[in-house]
Design brief:
Blueprint lengths: L2 H33 L1 E7 L4 E8 L2 E8 L3 E15 L3 E14 L4 E7 L2 H15 L3 E3 L6 E3 L2
Parallel strand pairs: 4-7
Antiparallel strand pairs: 1-2, 2-3, 4-5, 5-6, 7-8
Length: 145
């Protein structure tokens, strides 16, 4: 088979199918990225914690025994966005972590609005019954449950 025949064979028979397969692959990757997210399940009665990755509705993760809960604390992170030289934007993202007695820290929630995050943590704290510390203030202060 000569190069001319191979080129003719590729142009007319399989090139449209290749485009379709390429688009289907790209679409699958986009759907995979949009539907994948991280989560945490804390089961107080059964005393376990599960960090999971939700992929297409399947929660993939490993259960670990839940140790003594020391506290819930809130951190703040500066998010800076640059767009060319015409637009700069600074904002804060607030992160809530669960600290266990063995020193392990587990991210449980993030939010742009600190008040919304604190209200959600108060709901969690009705079950967890621990202290909530706001480390974004100087000095760090305990949040009323």
């Amino acid at each position: 088979m000569s190069f001319k025949e191979i080129g003719r064979w590729m142009d007319y028979q399989y090139l449209p199918a290749f485009d379709i397969y390429l688009m289907m692959g790209a679409f699958s990757i986009i759907v995979f990225i949009w539907t994948t997210h991280y989560g945490v399940v804390i089961h107080v009665e059964k005393r376990y914690i599960k960090r999971y990755l939700n992929v297409f509705g399947l929660k993939l993760g490993i259960k670990k025994p839940l140790g003594e809960i020391e506290k819930i604390f809130i951190n703040r992170q500066l998010i800076r966005q640059y767009l060319d030289y015409t637009f700069d934007r600074d904002s804060y993202q607030y992160w809530a972590f669960l600290k266990l007695a063995d020193g392990e820290k587990i991210k449980i929630k993030s939010q742009v609005n600190k008040g919304v995050l604190i209200n959600r943590l108060r709901q969690y704290n009705r079950i967890l019954k621990t202290v909530i510390i706001d480390t974004t203030t100087d000095p760090p202060e305990e949040v009323d449950s």
